[in-house]
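Notes from the 1:1 (GR / supervisor)

We went over the backlog. Supervisor wanted to see one worked example end to end before approving the batch request, so GR pasted a single chain during the call. The sequence is below; no edits were made to it. Supervisor asked that the structure be written out right there so they could see what the output format looks like.
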Amino acid sequence: MITLRPFAEAELSFFDELPGQGADPYSFFGFSRGSASVRARWAENRMIGDTSGTLAVDLDGTVIGDVDWHVVSYGPPPMSNAFNFGIRILPAYQGHGHGTRAQIELAKYLLATYPVNRIEAGTDVTNLAEQRSLEKAGFTREGIARGSHWRDGQWHDMVLFSRLRSDGD
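Structure output shown during the call:
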């Protein structure tokens, strides 16, 4: 069973062990500093704050990925704030529906915890698996953001998806 939960301090090594370049072409945005910045965030607020957060994707007691979110503004805050989120599932666990379940759970969590109306996510236009996962999780495809993110040494287009509070479960 997939659940989302805060990371335990002993699990922060997960961020040191993430696959590098080539393991998942949609998750590599450059070499990271390992878990140093994650450990600082964990010490500050256990990686869950008012405007951003990170949770572990847990499969029967094993961390298989993480989800994170941050605030984006479409007008005067706080009522025009939304959350943009990302997900990372370790390659060995991809393709089994775990990411879809985690995105469903994240949408429920964000809408139950924060006064936002909109949750959004984007993925590379060639990442068809994630597009299907977002659709299965109840997100609506909105369009293409051309040249919107820098990954692997070049600009890429993204497909944008959203889910509104009024969309229901």
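Supervisor's comment: Residues 2-17+33-167 form a domain with the Aminopeptidase fold (CATH 3.40.630.30).
Batch request approved.
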